[in-house]
C-alpha cells in the first residue's frame, strides 16, 4: 500500500505520522500537528468556552488549565463525588494519550478511574493529545505497552474516531453513546510546528 | 428474552415478512463490498494473504485448546491479582443464578447490558425479569429488539432484519413522539438520551468479552457505539459473561484477532473502541463468569472442535444465501448463520439444532470468509448426520431415508423415471414439464411448486444412447489433444436419467478431441445426495460402489462438478475411518476431472480458438457454488469461452453464489429455494444475456425450471451442450424425438 505524502509536513515527519494522519481522517476524526500545550489550549478555546480536562491529564499538565483560563475558558475537572454530573453538559474535553498507532489511526488512552472515563464518554467533542515521539507503527507496539501492565488493575482503550452505529439498515450514524467529534492533536515540538495541511 | 418458537413457525414468519428478504439482500451486498475492500487493504498492509492471516489466528486459537486448563488458570490468576472475581460455571442455570444472587445481595433492580451473545445463550434477561430485575440492553440494535420483544437475528447486527420504517413506528409507540422514518439520526439520538439516564441510574452493568487475555488477566471488549464503555464503567458491579473458548495467550495475539474481527464483521480496520479491562476500577467490583455449556464436549469432538475458534464476527451469515432469504430468526437458534448450525446442538441440544439444518444449501460460501478458517460446511454435514441418527424433529425423516435407500438401486431408479417419463410426455416443452396452471397458480401447492417448472423426463437414459456404436461419430477437431487416450465418462445420476443431453454432449466433445470414451456400466451415484441429507452410511456405500465402478485406472471425466466435489473433496473425509479406503479415494480423486478442468487445463486442453465458429452472441456464466467455494475455481469457464470458443462473456453479478438448488433443499424448503433463485435470476436480468451457461446439472435443471416458470426467455445450457453446437459441421444433438 502506498502511503500518501503530506507535502507541508516538516522534515521530522516520519512515515508513521503520515500514515497516522491518513488513518485518523479515514476514521472520521480530524488530525492536527501542534507545537505544544499552549496551542492545544488555543485549539480548544476556539471551539468552546467550557472545557473539561481528564483529571490524569490535569495532574500531568497543570499549566494547561491556566492557559485555558487565560483564554477565557471555564475549566471543568471532574471530582470523585459525582464525576458524571460534573462533565455531563461540557461540550469539549481534552485527554492525553499514551501512544498513537499509525496502522489504525488509534490513540491509546488509559483511564483507570471513573472520573477519567466520564470525560471521554460524556463529552460531545473529544481532543486526544499525543506526543509525536509516542507515535508507533503497529498494533503490536500497543500490545508491547500493555503486556508489562498485565495483572494490575487498569483500563486502556484504543480509540479510533467518534462513536458510531450502523444498527439501523446498516446506515452509518456518527455520535451514539460517545463523542460526536474527535480531534487527534500530535505534539511535534516548536521546531517542527506545522499548521493545517492543505493536502 | 422471549421463548424461542418452533422452527417451522419461525421459518413461516420469516417467509411471510417481505422486509426480511429485501433488507437482508441489501445488507449482504453492502457487507460484501466493505469487507472485501477491507480485507484487500489488510493483505496489502501485511504483505500476506487472507488465508495466511486466518491460518495464523486459527493456530493461536487451536493452541489455546491444546493447553486449555493452563490458559484458564493463568487468566484466572492474573484477573484475580487485578481484583476481579473469576467463577467457572458449567450450565446456563448456574450462570443465571449467580448473576441474580449477586444483584439481589447488592439490592439492585436494574442492570445495564452491553452486547453479550453468552447472555442471550443462557437466556439471562428472562431469568432476571422473573426475579423482578429489569435488564436494559444498551447496544442500539439490542435495545430496539428489547422494545420490540424480539431476539437478535445476527451476531453483530442484531436488528438488521428490521426496516427503518418499522423501527420509527416502534419508537413512536414507545417514546410517544414523532419519528420520521428517514431520520435515522433522530432515532439514534433518542436512544442516547433514553439510555443515558439508565446508565447513570444503574448500579450493575454487564458485558461480554471478545477475548480473555491470559497473560494479563485482561478482557478485550470492542464496540462502536460507546455503550459498552459506559455499562462497564458507571455501575458499582461489573459482570462479565464469557465462554471459556474466548481465551487468547497474549496481547499480541489479541491484536491479530482485532485485525480480522472488525474487517470481517463490518469492514472496519478496527472498531471505534477497543478496550482492555484488567480488574475493576477503583470503587467497583468485577465478577467474571466463565461458561462451559457444551464447550468442553465440542473440544472433545474432533469433527466440530474447530468451531470453538469462532470470534463471533457474523461473516458466515453475511455470505449465506439461505440466511439472505429467511434471516437469523429462522436460520439458527440463539447463534445464527453457519456457526449456529454447528454450535447450537452443543449449547441448546439436538432438537434446537435440528430444524434449521435443512436450510443449509451446502454452497460452502461461509468457509471462504471465516476469519478463523472453521471448516463450517463439513461440520454442518456432521451435525446433520447426528441429527439424522437421532431422528430429531427436522431431520430428513423416514420418507427421505426410504427414497435415498431406494436410490441406491440403479434398476429401480431407471424403472421409476421411465414411468414418469412416459406419463409426462404430453407435458414436455423446451426441456421442462409444463405443469397445468391450475396447479402452479392457485391452491395450496402454488408457492411450493409454481416457481419452477420440473424438468422434462426423457424416455431413454444417456447410458443407453452412449452404448458402443449407437452414437454417430462426431466431427473431429483439428487438434486432437486426447488422441488415443481412454476416458471414462461419469454421467452423474441426475443427468443420466433426467438431462441425458448433458453427458451425451460431453461424450461428443471428448471424442471430437480424440478421446476413446467409455461409459462404465456399473456407475450410478457418487453418494452426494445421501451425504447432503445426513445419511452418511448410505453415502459411504455409494462412494464405495462408485470407486469400484471406476477402478480401471483411466482418467474419469464428469460433466457434473458436484460429483467432482464429492469424489475429490468429500469422499476421503467420509471414508476417514479406513486409511486404505482413503488412499483409494485419493487415487480416484487424482484422476477425476470435471469437464471444464479437463478441457481447459487438464490432459484435454484445447488450443485457443479451436471451438470458435464465428458466433459472437454474448453469453453469461453462473459459477457452480461448490466449484467456486470448495474447489477454488474462479473464472475458468468464462476464460475458456472467451479464449477457446471466441464468445463474448457478460459477467454475471454474484456469479459464484448458490442458485438455490442446494440438493435436497429445493425439495424440503421450496420457498427458500425459490427466494435464492429469485436473487440469481435478478442478477441474470442485469446481464441482458440470452444464453446462461454453467456446468452443474442440478443448477441447470433448477435454473431452467425457474426461467421457464417466470416467463423469461433465456436459454440455460450446460457448457458441453453449448460447445457441441460449435463443433465443425454440428447439427442438433438432441437424442429425443
Topology:
The complex is a heterodimer of chains A (199) and B (737).
Chain A: H1 15-26, E1 30-34, H2 37-45, E2 50-53, H3 55-60, H4 62-70, E3 74-76, H5 83-87, E4 92-96, E5 99-101, E6 106-110, H6 114-122, E7 125-131, E8 135-136, H7 139-146, E9 154-159, E10 164-165, E11 173-174, E12 181-187
Helix pairs in contact in A: 2-4
Chain B: H1 7-16, H2 18-46, H3 50-66, H4 68-81, E1 85-89, H5 92-105, E2 110-113, H6 117-121, H7 124-130, E3 134-137, H8 140-148, H9 164-175, H10 184-201, E4 204-207, E5 211-213, E6 218-223, H11 227-233, E7 237-243, E8 247-248, H12 251-266, E9 273-278, E10 285-291, H13 295-300, H14 315-318, H15 321-330, H16 337-348, H17 350-357, H18 365-369, H19 376-390, H20 397-407, H21 410-424, E11 428-429, E12 432-433, H22 437-440, H23 446-449, H24 462-465, E13 486-489, H25 493-498, H26 501-512, E14 516-518, H27 528-532, H28 536-549, E15 555-558, H29 561-574, H30 579-590, E16 592-594, H31 595-600, E17 619-621, H32 625-629, H33 636-643, E18 649-650, H34 665-668, H35 670-687, E19 691-694, H36 697-709, E20 715-718, H37 719-724
Parallel strand pairs in B: 1-10, 2-3, 2-4, 4-7, 5-8, 7-10, 13-14, 13-15, 15-16, 17-18, 17-19, 19-20
Antiparallel strand pairs in B: 5-6, 6-9, 11-12
Helix pairs in contact in B: 1-15, 2-12, 2-15, 3-12, 15-35, 16-17, 16-19, 17-19, 29-30, 35-36
Instruction: Please give the most extensive interface between any two protein chains, plus how many residues each contributes.
Output: A-B, 52 and 74 residues
Order of helices and strands of chain A: HEHEHHEHEEEHEEHEEEE
Average predicted confidence as pLDDT of chain B: 92
CATH T-level topology of chain A: Rossmann fold
Largest sheet of chain B: 6 strands, parallel
Number of strands of chain A: 12
**Count of domain modules of chain B:** 2
- Overall mean pLDDT of chain A stands at 90
**How much helix is in the residues of chain A?**
25-40%
Backbone CA Rg of chain B? 28 Å
| Binned strand content of chain A | 25-35%
Q: Helix segment count of chain B? A: 37
Q: In what order do the strands lie side by side in the largest sheet of chain B?
A: 1-10-7-4-2-3
Q: Which geometry of chain A do the CA atoms define?
A: globular
CATH class assignment of chain A: Alpha Beta
Radius of gyration of chain A, in angstroms, nearest whole number: 17 Å
Which assembly state applies to the chains in this document? heterodimer
CATH homologous superfamily label of chain A: NagB/RpiA/CoA transferase-like
Amino acid at each position: 500500500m502506498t502511503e500518501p505524502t503530506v507535502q507541508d509536513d516538516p522534515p521530522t515527519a516520519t512515515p508513521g505520522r503520515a500514515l497516522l494522519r491518513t488513518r485518523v481522517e479515514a476514521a472520521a476524526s480530524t488530525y492536527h500537528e501542534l507545537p505544544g500545550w499552549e496551542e492545544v489550549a488555543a485549539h480548544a478555546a476556539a471551539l468552546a468556552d467550557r472545557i473539561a480536562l481528564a483529571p490524569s491529564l490535569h495532574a500531568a499538565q497543570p499549566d494547561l488549565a491556566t492557559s485555558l483560563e487565560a483564554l477565557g475558558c471555564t475549566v471543568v475537572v471532574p471530582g470523585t463525588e459525582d464525576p458524571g454530573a460534573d462533565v455531563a453538559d461540557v461540550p469539549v474535553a481534552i485527554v492525553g494519550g499514551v501512544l498513537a498507532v499509525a496502522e489504525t489511526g488509534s490513540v491509546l488512552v488509559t483511564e483507570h478511574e471513573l472520573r477519567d472515563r466520564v470525560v471521554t464518554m460524556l463529552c460531545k467533542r473529544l481532543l486526544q493529545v499525543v506526543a509525536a515521539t509516542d507515535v508507533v507503527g503497529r498494533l503490536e507496539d500497543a500490545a508491547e505497552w500493555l503486556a508489562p501492565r498485565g495483572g494490575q488493575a487498569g483500563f486502556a482503550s484504543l480509540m479510533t474516531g467518534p462513536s458510531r452505529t450502523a444498527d439501523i439498515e446498516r446506515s452509518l450514524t456518527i455520535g451514539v453513546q460517545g463523542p460526536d467529534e474527535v480531534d487527534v492533536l500530535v505534539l511535534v515540538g516548536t521546531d517542527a510546528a506545522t499548521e493545517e495541511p492543505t493536502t | 428474552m422471549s421463548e424461542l418458537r418452533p422452527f417451522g413457525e419461525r421459518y413461516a414468519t420469516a417467509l411471510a415478512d417481505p422486509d426480511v428478504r429485501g433488507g437482508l439482500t441489501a445488507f449482504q451486498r453492502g457487507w460484501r463490498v466493505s469487507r472485501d475492500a477491507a480485507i484487500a487493504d489488510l493483505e496489502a498492509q501485511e504483505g500476506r494473504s487472507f488465508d495466511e492471516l486466518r491460518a495464523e489466528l486459527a493456530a493461536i486459537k487451536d493452541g489455546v485448546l491444546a493447553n486449555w486448563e493452563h490458559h484458564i488458570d493463568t487468566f484466572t490468576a492474573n484477573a484475580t491479582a487485578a481484583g476481579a472475581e473469576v467463577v467457572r460455571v458449567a450450565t446456563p442455570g448456574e450462570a443465571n443464578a449467580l448473576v441474580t444472587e449477586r444483584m439481589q445481595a447488592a439490592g439492585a433492580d436494574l442492570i445495564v447490558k452491553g452486547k453479550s451473545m453468552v447472555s442471550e445463550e443462557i437466556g439471562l434477561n428472562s431469568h432476571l425479569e422473573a426475579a423482578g430485575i429489569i435488564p436494559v440492553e444498551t447496544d442500539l440494535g439490542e435495545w430496539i429488539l428489547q422494545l420490540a420483544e424480539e431476539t437478535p437475528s445476527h451476531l453483530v447486527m442484531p436488528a438488521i432484519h428490521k426496516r427503518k420504517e418499522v423501527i420509527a413506528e416502534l419508537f413512536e409507540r414507545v417514546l410517544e413522539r414523532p419519528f420520521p422514518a428517514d431520520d435515522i439520526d433522530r432515532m439514534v439520538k433518542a436512544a442516547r438520551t433514553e439510555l443515558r439516564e439508565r446508565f447513570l441510574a444503574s448500579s450493575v452493568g454487564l458485558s461480554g468479552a471478545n477475548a480473555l487475555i491470559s497473560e494479563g488477566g485482561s478482557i478485550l471488549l470492542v464496540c462502536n457505539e460507546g455503550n459498552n464503555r459506559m455499562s462497564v464503567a458507571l455501575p458499582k458491579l461489573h459482570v462479565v459473561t464469557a465462554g471459556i473458548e474466548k481465551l487468547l495467550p497474549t496481547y499480541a495475539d489479541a491484536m491479530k484477532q482485532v485485525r480480522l474481527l472488525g474487517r470481517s464483521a463490518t469492514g472496519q480496520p478496527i472498531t471505534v473502541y477497543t478496550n482492555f479491562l484488567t480488574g475493576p476500577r477503583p470503587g467497583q467490583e468485577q465478577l467474571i463468569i466463565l461458561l462451559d455449556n457444551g464447550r468442553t464436549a465440542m473440544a472433545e469432538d474432533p469433527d466440530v472442535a474447530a468451531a470453538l475458534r469462532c470470534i463471533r464476527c457474523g461473516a458466515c451469515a453475511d455470505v449465506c444465501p439461505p440466511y439472505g432469504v429467511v434471516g437469523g430468526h429462522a436460520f439458527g437458534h440463539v447463534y445464527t448463520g453457519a456457526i449456529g448450525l454447528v454450535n447450537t446442538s452443543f449449547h441448546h441440544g439436538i432438537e434446537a439444532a435440528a430444524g434449521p439444518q435443512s436450510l443449509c444449501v451446502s454452497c460452502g460460501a461461509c468457509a471462504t470468509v471465516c476469519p478463523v478458517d472453521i471448516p463450517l460446511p463439513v461440520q454442518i454435514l456432521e451435525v446433520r448426520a447426528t441429527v439424522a441418527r437421532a431422528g430429531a424433529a427436522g431431520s430428513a425423516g423416514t420418507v427421505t431415508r426410504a427414497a435415498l435407500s431406494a436410490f441406491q438401486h440403479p434398476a429401480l431408479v431407471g424403472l421409476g423415471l421411465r414411468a414418469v417419463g412416459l406419463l409426462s410426455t404430453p407435458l414436455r416443452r423446451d426441456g421442462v414439464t409444463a405443469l397445468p396452471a391450475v396447479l402452479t397458480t392457485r391452491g395450496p401447492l402454488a408457492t411450493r411448486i409454481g416457481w419452477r417448472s420440473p424438468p422434462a423426463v426423457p424416455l431413454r437414459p444417456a447410458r443407453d444412447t452412449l452404448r458402443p456404436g449407437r452414437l454417430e461419430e462426431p466431427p473431429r477437431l483439428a487438434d486432437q489433444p486426447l488422441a488415443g487416450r481412454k476416458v471414462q465418462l461419469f454421467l452423474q445420476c441426475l443427468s443420466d436419467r433426467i438431462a441425458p443431453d448433458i453427458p451425451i454432449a460431453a461424450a461428443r466433445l471428448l471424442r471430437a478431441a480424440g478421446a476413446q470414451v467409455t461409459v462404465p456400466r456399473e456407475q450410478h451415484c457418487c453418494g452426494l445426495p445421501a451425504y447432503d441429507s445426513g445419511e452418511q452410511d448410505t453415502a459411504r456405500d455409494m462412494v464405495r460402489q462408485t470407486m469400484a465402478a471406476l477402478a480401471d485406472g483411466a482418467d474419469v471425466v464428469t460433466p457434473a462438478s458436484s460429483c467432482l466435489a464429492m469424489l475429490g473433496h468429500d469422499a476421503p473425509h467420509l471414508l476417514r475411518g479406513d486409511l486404505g479406503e482413503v488412499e483409494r479415494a485419493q487415487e480416484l480423486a487424482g484422476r477425476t476431472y470435471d469437464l471444464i478442468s479437463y478441457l481447459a487445463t487438464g490432459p484435454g486442453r484445447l488450443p485457443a480458438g479451436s471451438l470458435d465458429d464465428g458466433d459472437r452472441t454474448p453469453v453469461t456464466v453462473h459459477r457452480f457454488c461448490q466449484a467456486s467455494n470448495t474447489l477454488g475455481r474462479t473464472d475458468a469457464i468464462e476464460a475458456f469461452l472467451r479464449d477457446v470458443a471466441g464468445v463474448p462473456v457478460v459477467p454475471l453479478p454474484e456469479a459464484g453464489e448458490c442458485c438455490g438448488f442446494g440438493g435436497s433443499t429445493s425439495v424440503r424448503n421450496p420457498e427458500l429455494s425459490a427466494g435464492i433463485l429469485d436473487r440469481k435470476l435478478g442478477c441474470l436480468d442485469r446481464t441482458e444475456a440470452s444464453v446462461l451457461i454453467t456446468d452443474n446439472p442440478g443448477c441447470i435443471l433448477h435454473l431452467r425450471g425457474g426461467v421457464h416458470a417466470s416467463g423469461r426467455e433465456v436459454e440455460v445450457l450446460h457448457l458441453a451442450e453449448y460447445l457441441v453446437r460449435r463443433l465443425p459441421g454440428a447439427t442438433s444433438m438432441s437424442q429425443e424425438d
